[in-house]
């Protein structure tokens, strides 16, 4: 039975790595009751893979991805509840479940506030105004190629790589009307740059956020990854530059201006991020508490705008912050809940401990961290990082930087490897496709290799 479980775990390793992690407390309990070769363990795996299969065919069957994984999470923990009750260890399992709730709660609160701010900036036409300015600057296609790529690299650490891809993708489409080649290359470089930029900031990617919240890296330590991230963007961009068409697009189009209060909302978002950093750095409090204080900034400002706009009869001034909160993508947040709890259950069973031993003991942390990044080409980088955090290997800060870098940029290798690529495939359907991106996978892979080597070189003292 033990050998059978080992072979199954080996074959399932790529999928298991793409799953989020349970907290360290769950791993401690797993050592107390090993269920890896027990019927409960096998059934938990079966339930999880069945749910994951429904997620893969989400679009074909029109079933929201959160529904099967939430069901799977509940069933897995019910099985664990039975097993632990039979062993008289229900209190230990309860403690593990509460710690998973704590971890998920911090992540959810942080994301709800960040997404609410992004939705509010969108409602205040911040991104529309940016697009108007770029479209009407009279730049050549090649200048625009570098501009949108550079802006994606800069915005990625601030407003996250997904929102950056949406904003800059809209710019590329607006500028490149009628120029197929420019739109294709523009979208590819946006995905690469947004993912690369999201690495050297805790706010640029959920993977970076999770590493920061778990205190694996301090806020300023992320900036050690700036040059490796920059290399990851520049290498493929240099190769692609010569395929960008020459000439200049025609300017024009609808001029969009900020709604009243738009500039203040931008400043409030910056103040909210600064508050989150301060709570973590100075008070050792969860960043989510700082984000919730920042939500208070927005709530009070929206109250002010609402009343001023009502008195003046200016409908553009009115701002309903609760309406922007209702626009949060709850399917995604509930998917995170289901997937985190489902894999937390697998961690309690003991499977992730076995996988961690194989990767970080047998193969070594450097090889394991680089390989995990490559897996990001097939699986989303968020659950990959969750899996590493659950394994919680004993690594130096340089190794934690390496896995943060690799999971962040590994998703750029193919269009479906990151949320930025997936959302652009939906936005620019007839131009940015899986195969168009795949044609440049060789250049992006060179950027990946160059980025990793740059980190191993300039941050060698931290390894």
Task: Characterize the structure shown.
By secondary structure, the chain is mainly alpha-helical. The chain has a domain at 107-326. It contains 23 helices and no strands. Helix 11 packs parallel to helix 19, helix 16 packs parallel to helix 19 (381-391) and helix 20 (397-410) packs antiparallel against helix 23. Mean pLDDT is 82; it is low at 1-31.
> Termini distance?
39 Å
Oligomer: single chain
On the 0 to 100 scale, the average pLDDT is 82
> What does the radius of gyration come to?
23 Å
| Structural class by sheet pairing and helices | mainly alpha
- Could you state the order of secondary-structure elements as H and E? HHHHHHHHHHHHHHHHHHHHHHH
Summarize this structure briefly.
The chain is built from 23 helices and no strands. It has 463 residues and is an all-alpha fold. The protein has a domain at 107-326.
Record keyword descriptors for this entry.
74% helix, disordered N terminus, 0% strand, single chain, mainly alpha, globular, 463 residues
List the helices and strands and how they pair.
Elements lengths: L1 H16 L6 H9 L6 H18 L1 H4 L4 H21 L3 H34 L2 H10 L5 H19 L1 H15 L4 H18 L8 H8 L12 H16 L20 H21 L4 H26 L8 H6 L3 H20 L1 H13 L1 H11 L5 H11 L5 H14 L8 H9 L6 H5 L2 H18 L5
Helix pairs in contact: 1-17, 2-16, 3-5, 3-16, 5-16, 6-13, 6-14, 6-16, 7-9, 8-9, 8-10, 8-12, 9-10, 9-21, 10-12, 11-19, 12-23, 13-14, 16-19, 17-18, 17-19, 18-20, 19-20, 20-23
């Amino acid at each position: 039975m033990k050998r059978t479980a080992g072979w199954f775990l080996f074959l399932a390793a790529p999928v298991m790595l793409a799953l989020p992690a349970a907290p360290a407390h769950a791993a401690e309990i797993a050592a107390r009751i090993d269920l890896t070769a027990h019927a409960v363990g096998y059934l938990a795996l079966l339930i999880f893979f069945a749910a994951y299969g429904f997620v893969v065919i989400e679009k074909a069957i029109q079933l929201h991805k959160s529904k099967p994984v939430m069901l799977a999470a509940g069933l897995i923990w019910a099985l664990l509840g039975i097993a632990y009750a039979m062993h008289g260890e229900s209190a230990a399992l309860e403690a593990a479940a509460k710690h998973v709730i704590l971890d998920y709660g911090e992540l959810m609160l942080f994301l709800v506030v960040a997404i609410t701010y992004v939705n509010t900036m969108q409602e205040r036409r911040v991104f529309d105004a940016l697009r108007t300015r770029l479209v009407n600057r009279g730049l050549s296609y090649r200048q625009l190629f570098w501009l949108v790529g550079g802006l994606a690299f800069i915005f990625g650490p601030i407003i996250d790589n997904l929102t950056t891809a949406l904003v800059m993708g809209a710019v590329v489409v607006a500028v490149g009307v009628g120029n197929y080649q420019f739109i294709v290359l523009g979208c590819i470089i946006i995905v690469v740059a947004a993912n690369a930029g999201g690495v050297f900031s805790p706010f640029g990617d959920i993977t970076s956020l999770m590493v920061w919240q778990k205190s694996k890296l301090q806020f300023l330590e992320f900036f050690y990854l700036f040059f490796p991230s920059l290399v990851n963007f520049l290498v493929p961009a240099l190769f692609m530059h010569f395929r960008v068409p020459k000439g200049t697009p025609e300017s024009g189009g609808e001029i969009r201006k900020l709604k009243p209060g738009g500039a203040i909302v931008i400043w409030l978002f910056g103040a909210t991020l600064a508050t989150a950093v301060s709570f973590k750095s100075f008070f050792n409090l969860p960043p989510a508490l700082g984000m919730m204080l920042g939500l208070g900034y927005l709530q009070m400002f929206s109250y002010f705008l609402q009343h001023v706009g009502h008195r003046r009869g200016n409908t553009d001034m009115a701002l309903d912050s609760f309406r922007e909160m209702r626009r949060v993508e709850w399917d995604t947040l509930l998917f995170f809940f289901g997937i985190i709890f489902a894999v937390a259950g697998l961690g309690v069973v003991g499977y992730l401990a076995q996988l961690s031993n194989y990767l970080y003991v047998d193969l070594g942390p450097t090889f394991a961290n680089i390989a995990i990044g490559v897996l990001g080409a097939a699986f989303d980088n968020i659950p990959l990082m969750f899996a590493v955090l659950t394994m919680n290997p004993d690594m130096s800060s340089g190794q934690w930087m390496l896995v943060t870098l690799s999971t962040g940029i590994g998703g750029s290798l193919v269009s479906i490897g990151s949320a930025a690529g997936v959302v652009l495939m939906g936005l620019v359907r007839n131009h940015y496709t899986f195969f168009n991106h795949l044609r440049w996978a060789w250049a992006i892979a060179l950027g990946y290799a160059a980025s990793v080597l740059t980190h191993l070189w300039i941050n060698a003292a931290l390894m």
